[in-house]
């Protein structure tokens, strides 16, 4: 059973129908490929993208990053996954006191989008410092901007499977639609080991979309050739 192209757009719109409550989280924790996959595998995260933030270079690129940092930006539903959980995942999966290897490219960076996020960061930082047994040196500041990285860096691990991409192209003719989709975020996490076939299948059954659409996605997922 093939998922019509229009259905994919409707499915993604359905997953984002609670846009009024969705939030962003923006952070750097080393090379951005792995963290995008890690957070893309989390229930409640609807979109992931990688790029550059924190610097003054007006148009950073991967080859000309200037004083920016490799950064991941996610969109999430706070009723499904809290900002506290995201912060624990952030600090629990990288060393926040590393040297400035390659300048600012791989520093520990955290940009807050709201005053409530700033307050939450303070609380979770204390909690994580107690676990680490040392002060956290993450650079923390208000969000001022994010530049999307080049196409080849988005969903990096998923793109290492050309056979799967060929199958996905039949229903995602627009590469940007694929890269920004919740489905692709889960696939990118899955191929990196953040999730199993059973966990992805079960999560899709809980998505706020029609039963026929769930069945379409599950069938596509289980039939993908890697």
Would you kindly provide a written description of the structure presented here, covering whatever features stand out?
This protein has 226 residues and is of the alpha+beta class. The chain is 41% helix and 15% strand. It is built from 9 helices and 6 strands; from the N terminus they run αβαββαβαββααααα. Strands 5-4-1-3-2-6 form a 6-stranded mixed β-sheet, with helices on one face. Helix 8 packs antiparallel against helix 9. The relative contact order is 0.19.
How would you sum up this structure in a few lines?
The chain is of the alpha+beta class and 226 residues long. The protein contains nine helices and six strands. It has helices at 5-15, 33-40, 83-91, 115-132, 162-169, 175-179, 182-191, 197-206, 211-223; strands at 23-29, 45-53, 69-76, 108-112, 139-142, 147-148.
